[in-house]
Structures are given as C-alpha cells and as structure tokens.
Amino acid sequence: MQDYKYMDRLMQRGREFLNVRYPIICGAMTWVSDPKLVATVCNNGAFACLAGGNTPPEILKAQISELRTLTDKSFAVNLITIAPAYQEHIALLKSLDNPVPYIVFAGSIPKEKEIAAIKETGAKVICFASTISIAERMIRSGADALVLEGAEAGGHIGHVSTTVLIQQLLFRFGDTLPIFVAGGVATGKLTAHLLLCGAAGIQMGTRFVMTEECQAHPRFKDYFAKANARDAMSTAQFDPKLPVVSVRVIRNHGTQEFTKLQLELVKKVAEGTTTRQEAQLELERFWVGSLRKAVVDGDVEYGSVMAGQSVGLMDKITSVNDVIQEIMSDGEKELQKMKNFFAE
Ligand SMILES: Cc1cc2nc3c(=O)[nH]c(=O)nc-3n(C[C@H](O)[C@H](O)[C@H](O)COP(=O)(O)O)c2cc1C
Fold first, then answer.
1. Residues 40 and 160 in one domain
2. Which of 24, 104, 205, 330 is the one with CA 20 to 30 A from 150?
3. Arithmetic mean of pLDDT, 58-69
4. Across residues 37-46, what is the average pLDDT?
5. Ligand 1 centroid to 196 CA: how many Å?
6. Do 232 and 94 sit in the same domain of this protein?
7. Total structural domains in the chain?
8. Counting atoms of ligand 1 from 1, which one is nearest the CA of 310?
9. What is the CATH number of the domain that holds 39?
10. Would the pLDDT of 344 be above 80?
11. Is 128 helix (H, G, I), strand (E, B) or coil?
12. Residues 36, 215: contact at Cβ < 8 Å?
C-alpha cells in the first residue's frame, strides 16, 4: 500500500469517522451514483454515497442489497428531504435488518426527529451546510459530520462560495465535528491545503463523473470534457413568491426550458391556479427527469447536464483508482514542498 505520510496524518480524523483508508467522498449524484460506482470508489479505499433520494423505495432497497454484494466497505445512502418518497425512505432505512452505516441528508433542512430516527438505526448522520445558520442548526439537531458545500458545486447549490464557507464555518466548527469540503474541489494540491485548514476530508461529484467506472452516457462525459468553468452556470429565481433552489448546470436548451417553466409557474402561482408547493414540486420533477435524459439517454442538448465549475479543470476520463491516487500523491507532494520550504 502506498505511503502518504503527511496526507495520512492530516486525514486521520476523516479516516476514522468514515472508517476508510482515504476520506475522499464521491458525493451522491442522482442517476450517476449507482451501486457499481459507489462500490468501485469504496473498494479503492475511498467513500461514496448511493444516490437514493429520487429513487422509488423498492428500487432503493434492491440497490442497497446489490451494493452489499459488491462491497463490504462502509458507504452512505443519500436522502433528499424535498423528494416525494422521503418519508418512505426513512421508513425503509429504519426497517432494514442490516442498517446502512451512514446517511447523508440533502435537499432542504432535515427535522431533528428525522435525524434522531436515522441515528436510532445506528447510522452516522452527515448533513450539508451551505450557510453558517444551516451549519449551526444541523449541529444542534445532532449531525455527526457536515459537508460544507460552496456554490461552485454541481447540482442543487447554495449561494455562498467555498472560500467564504471555509472561513465562516470550517474555521469555526472544524474542531467541533468532522467537516468535509465540497464545491470546486478537484485536485490533490487543493486537498492538501483544505486539510491544513482543518477539513476532515473532501467531497467531489464532478470529478467522479469523469471516470471509466461511472455509467453516465459517453455524450454526458464528452460535454463535461469540452466545457469551460464559466459554462457551468447557476439558475436564477425570478420571483420571491416562488422560491427555488439554484442548480449549477451546463448551459444548453434544457436550461432555457427550465427558465420557461419557472416563468409559467410564477404566473400560475400569482393567478392562484397552482400552489407554491405544487409549483416547487413540478420544478424538482423537471430536474430529475431532465437529468435522466442527459445522464441515461445522452441527450445533452435538452437534458440537464449538472456540473460544478471544476468541470473546466478536466478533459480526460480516468479510472476511479487513478483519481484517488492522484489526489493523494499530488497532495503529498504539496505537503512535502511546504515542509521543505519551512525547513530551510
Ligand atoms: C450530476 C450531479 C448530480 C448530483 N445529484 C446530487 C444528489 O442527488 N444528491 C446530493 O446530495 N448531491 C448531488 N450532487 C452534488 C454532489 O453530491 C457533490 O456534493 C457536488 O458535486 C460537489 O461539488 P463538485 O461538483 O464541485 O465536485 C450532484 C452533483 C452532480 C454533478
């Protein structure tokens, strides 16, 4: 096994928390993080999250069973609080004879009693934090660890950048509980500096899409390869009466369709022909459906190609193991360089 003396030392807390060799998390990605990708990441010593949030409960149950046949390592299941089957997912996880070891809550803010219900199964709970107030609330509600996710990330995002969240949140709560940094992270060099800032590890989504073992359609990956950082835009909210979560996605016809749909729904909410909740659900259904179109069918013109700004840093598809080893060895080189600098 490769020796990464300095990275290992800085990663000890994350390693112990996740019970893995490398506290590098492959974040849940709807339609992308299937049992095969999750198992590959885990079997290569890192940690991954099964995208369960938008999956019908019986399929999620089958996927958890499949995953257990592919790996005996620790992994997480992602729950999305705003998904239609959210409560059924919680019930499913409570009913399993062999409980899932880690649960990551995403979407909006999970209730304290939902976190408690999951913790009763023995699982450790990881929550997203995209603002300081959400972080404080999640810590009060019993989260065991946080994923600090900046607005550079792909998929549904908050509005605060990773750099500011590091100073607001990691510097403040980094000693209280393990914090994994996400949003624009794609290199070992940055990982080394995040560990020095107090991170327990990192989480990446965009980078893991560009792996051989990721089952996303080749056209989806090709779109990633060609995109610049600025092509991964964040969607806007047009009316405070219809609050929507921003999504970072590569600009195409699909993003125009989202704009059109949102404007239609703003009008309907104003006219009273639909409710705010119904309109929000419809927008979420749009994302799940259009993401499938892009990831599974390869329709990158009309589907939604969710990607973080780090998409501008990658143009090659490599193996999952290469990604992990590159992060570790580049991080180690960076720490060695710093050590030499200060030893002079
Ligand atoms: C295609 C795609 C789909 C995603 N779907 C989900 C999801 O279903 N649940 C979730 O918690 N996060 C989701 N994310 C966010 C990732 O898990 C991860 O936190 C994010 O990609 C990290 O930032 P990065 O894109 O800069 O690496 C998604 C991201 C992408 C790129």
1. yes
2. 330
3. 98
4. 98
5. 24
6. no
7. 2
8. 26
9. 3.20.20.70
10. no
11. strand
12. yes
H or E segment at 47?
strand 47-51
| Same-domain check for residues 185 and 289 | no
**Residue 209 Cα, ligand 1 centroid: separation in angstroms?**
10
Indicate whether residue 204 lines ligand 1 (CB < 6 A).
yes
58 & 205 share domain: yes
Given ligand 1 and candidates 206, 246, 284, 287, which is best to mutate, with the most ligand atoms within 8 Å of its CB? 206
Within this chain, do residues 79 and 185 fall inside the same structural domain, yes or no? yes
Q: Do 189 and 237 belong to one domain?
A: no
For residue 149, give its domain range.
5-216+314-339
**pLDDT tens for residues 176-214?**
999 999 999 999 999 999 999 999 999 999 999 999 999
Inter-helix orientation angle 35-43/57-70, to 10°: 30
| Residue 344 domain-assigned (yes or no) | no
Residue 30 and residue 168 share a domain: yes
Torsion of CA 312, 128, 163, 317, to 10 degrees: -20
Is residue 277 in a domain?
yes
Cα atoms in the 13 Å half-sphere on the side-chain side of 26: 35
- In a shared domain, residues 183 and 232: no
* 198 close to ligand 1 (CB < 6 Angstrom): no
Cβ neighbours for 290, distance < 8 A, ≥ 6 positions apart: 254, 257, 258, 302, 303, 304
Residue 234 lies in a domain: yes
In a domain, 326, yes or no: yes
Angle, CA 5 vertex, CA 4 and CA 11 arms, to 5°: 80
Closest C-alpha to ligand 1, atom 5 = 29
Task: Please report the sign of the dihedral spanned by the C-alpha atoms of residue 220, residue 224, residue 225, residue 226.
Answer: positive
For residue 148, give both structure tokens: 């600090």
- Report the pLDDT averaged over residues 74-92: 96
Collapsing DSSP states into helix, strand and coil, what is residue 13?
A: helix
Q: Relative to the CA of 54, which ligand 1 atom is closest?
A: 8
Asked if residue 106 has its Cβ within 6 Å of ligand 1, the reply is yes
The conformation of residue 312, written as its DSSP 8-state character, comes to G
Q: Are 279 and 242 in contact (CB under 8 A)?
A: yes
Among 30, 127, 180, name the best residue to mutate to test ligand 1's pocket (greatest count of ligand atoms within 8 A of Cβ).
Answer: 30
Indicate if ligand 1 lies below 6 Å from the C-beta of 311.
Answer: no
